[in-house]
Amino acid sequence: MIFLNSCSSPESEGKKLGDKFCNCLGDFKTFTEPKQFNQVMDSCKNLIKDDWTKYENDYKKNESKWNLFNTSYEKACESKLKEFNDSLKLIYAEIEKKIKENLNDKLWLKKDENKGYYLYSFNDNALSIINCKGESKFKLSVDTIKFEDTESTMAIVSFTEDGNLILTDCKSGKKGVYQPASEKDKLLGNWKGFSEFISFYPGGNCYVSTDWGAYKKHGKYSFIDNNLEIDGPPSYRVNFSNIDYFSWGQIQFYRNKYAHPKNLSDVLF
Q: Residue 25: CB partners within 8 Å, gap ≥ 6?
């Protein structure tokens, strides 16, 4: 009896339960996704749940013993949990790195766009809507992007197997789907020449007018090998010296821009 009592103590029981929890964590350094860490953590907490309740009932009425038990448990878990959290941080860092690589230096076309914004870029921690003036700064934390707009809009960033970008609103769950833009997509929006206006829409539709109102027409356009043709010949090669300017024959066009939206939740999803 003396031997048994000497072995059973808050310190020894705390260490034993801590060791049981740590052994349950297994070889987490082979994990490649955060959900694996979450799953094993939940599993190990459930494994020791009944034991924890038992010791809580045994020791909690005695503050000194309960503190000894907790201290011993935490000490037994300290090293293993640090390794666990460090491994998880590495996975998070890799996810964030890949998202930045996929977002940066690309022009994105929003699918099913109905507000006329069309084109987006996410370079240098700033969202630029190409058909708008200005930009919105954002911060990326793992897979969550937080914009500095009036609503502090937040979204989960993900990518499909075919390279499309998905932004999922953290509040509503609504999704915005974006695909890498083509050269033809760069035309989308409103343009002004010397006295000419052209609006290009998805699907090959356009609207052409003059600033004195003498000519107004809805038509079709094609863009093949960078040659732009509106309602038939003539066809001239288009050169984008930058995203906001192109020449077509002898006419130079500059992009007309909207004001940058203050609330991005109505635009992105």
A: 40, 41, 44, 80, 84
